[in-house]
Amino acid sequence: MAELKARLQADLTAAIKNRETVRAGALRMALTAVTTEEVSGKAARELSDDEVQKVITREVKKRKEAAEAFAGAGRAEKAELERAESEVLEAYLPAQLSDDELAALVDGVLATLAGESGERPGMKQMGQVMKAVNAEVAGRAEGGRVAAAVKSKLAQRTG
Fold it and tell me: 2-11: per-residue pLDDT in tens?
């Protein structure tokens, strides 16, 4: 069993014993999502820690989107519950990169790619740059933030 999944289950048990309803609910939903992912496809399989992390990241994103929707609909209590659940799940993810760290990482990847090809990557190579940057980021920044950082760096280089 993946170490992260085992930690989620142990923390769920502790949350239930301590009557922490928000924490228990968030962990229960995350474990359900992990189990669903394990049995999806043609054959059941166990997820690695990286795959469990991706599932948790997806669940955090869902909670944030739901919180925004509830807030927009004037349901502040439900929005607050969704935010609290996303905070519980974020504790199981690696620390997020700051904007400066992300920019430095993008600069490093662009320098490497420029060294390999002999020319600076432009907007046409954004897919290639994104692939390389995402490999370096490894879940420590949301895709939208990464794309925005790459776009701004590529626009600076061509402009």
Answer: 798 999 999 9
Contacts of 154 by beta carbon, 8 Å cutoff, 6+ apart = 110, 121, 122, 123, 125, 126, 129
Q: What is the pTM of this model?
A: 0.73
Cα separation of 85 and 64, whole Å? 9
Give 46's contacts (C-beta < 8 A, 6+ positions apart). 1, 2, 38
pLDDT tens for 67-120 read: 999 999 999 999 999 999 999 999 998 888 888 888 888 888 888 888 887 777
Helices (H), the chain: 3-17, 21-39, 49-72, 76-90, 99-117, 126-137, 143-158
Phi, psi (rounded to 5 degrees) for 2: -60, 140
